[in-house]
From TrEMBL:
Subcellular location: Membrane
Protein name: Outer membrane beta-barrel protein
Gene3D superfamilies reported in the protein's UniProt record: 2.40.160.20
GO cellular component: membrane
Source species: Candidatus Berkiella aquae
Signal peptide span: 1-22
Species classification: Bacteria, Pseudomonadati, Pseudomonadota, Gammaproteobacteria, Candidatus Berkiellales
Superkingdom in the source lineage: Bacteria
InterPro entries assigned to the protein according to its UniProt record, in alphabetical order: Beta-barrel_OMP (IPR027385), OMP-like (IPR051692), OMP/PagP_B-barrel (IPR011250)
Amino acid sequence: MKRIGILLCLSSSLFAASAAQAGWEGNWLLGVSGGWAWHSDRDVDVTIIHPAPGNQITSFRAGDVGDSNSKFIWGLLAGYQARCNSWLLGGEINVDWRDHGDDGATFSFIDPVDGAVSGSVSGNSHHNAVVGLTARVGYEVSRYFLPYIRLGAEVTRVDDVDFVAIAPAVPYSVAYANDRNHRWGFVGGVGAEFPVPLCNALSLRAEYNYHSHSRHDDVVALASNLGTLYTISGDGSRHENTGKASLVWNFL
């Protein structure tokens, strides 16, 4: 997060200097936002390596795993923007928190080696703040309506990506593992900005964004029988959609 902040300061300073030379009028801004996020379901690949005889391997895919419900989000934003005629160019850093500290998933599986339902796998993860660095390009259609597009990248750290696998077949085995990683992704969206009447420094925004998270989640666990090995891997296709409103203070 510190590196992203330094990058934002440097890029904003360069943008402000170039904008001033080109005759653009610019200002710094701060804002707060709130809205909703909803996720796509994703497939999960599970591989089981049995000890004897011969280290038999079983692989299967569990579909529709994940939290597809909408969650409340809130955040802060800061940046710099410049205007020339009806055009607007800006750069911003966004820090958002999602109200889904734990994304859990539970599913049963059939192991052909045992010839029956062998048990279930359950997992959960804790998501930290999502930090995004984005650019905004807009065109003022009228004094009270400025549509824009947003493009950029974002990162979040995911802690305790863990799962528990329970196999009731003989010998009974339990596997547990955890991990942590950083998820990088791209963000793109559209929105509109409206000035607040009687206060030139305030403006309201409404926007929709698409967030792509392409990183795989891989976890490996050794079962309690000290022989069976479980691996679980997300297919990397999960994405997120957000809709939010923001109140922005412009330092004119």
